[in-house]
Amino acid sequence: MPEKPRRSSAVLSPEEVRPPRFTQANKSSRGQYPEKPRRSSAVPFPEEARPPRFTQAHKLSLPGDRKKKTVKKFLKTIPKRLRKNLGGVCSDMYDGFINAAKEVFGKRVIIIADRFHVAKLYRKDFDGFRRNEMNRLKKELSEEEYGKLKGAMWALRKKEDRLSDEEKEILNCLFGYSPELKLAYDFCNELTDIFEEDICKSDAEREIRIWKIRVGASGLKCFDSFLKTLGKRYREITNYFISRQTSGFVEGLNNKIKVIKRRCYGITNTDNLFRRIFLDIRGYSLFAGLH
Length: 291
Known about the structure:
By secondary structure, this protein is mostly helical. The protein has helices spanning 14-17, 56-59, 68-75, 80-83, 95-105, 115-140, 143-147, 152-156, 165-177, 179-196, 201-218, 224-232, 234-238, 240-243, 248-263, 270-287, and strands spanning 88-91, 110-113.
């Protein structure tokens, strides 16, 4: 039996992989069209779509860790001509990132605390208080009464205008057992509304100060951790209201890279990782017209 020919791994041009068009003249002697050739597994790579070959110089542009010294060294590699056009740096509230950016770019560049990391902090405090209250109610209420609170966690995480009638009933029942949780829920939503309002920085600072005073006067302790961070990074947090910049794109790209790594069960070769990222970001638009 002849040896089965090996599948070629060569990269073909679009013309080479496109199957021929069959007309009436192409019919076989039996009056049937010849068997349609199988599509090659080789991916056609237009020259303009070919990802660059990453060298050691490209890899050095990736920070090795989260330490301030490493981040500062990385930021200094940005050419001065590009630094002149830099208006702001959006980051989470990790000290290493913020302090490194301040030292490299100076006062001319605005440091912005990412709004979604801010929201994550005060919602985390609220969620911790919610867990404590649910544990308390589980001990105090009967099994039947506690069963009426099923689904409260997901209802608390929704916006009020998106709640169904059933979810509103669950929350009303929960807040009847825990008025303090209702108060914390309202404070959490009020702060979210401030960030969603179309207001300037000075108005936002005034509203956040009022919110902070009201939380302190309420006697609630669940937001103590967030209030401490708010006092420490007040300027960076309120800088969001200047141009409303976020690091949403970066967070989305980070998540995409994590998904790629899980899908491939880990990638140890950096060149291959960059190529997969390139294909996931631009591949669909570049190759859509080849099918």
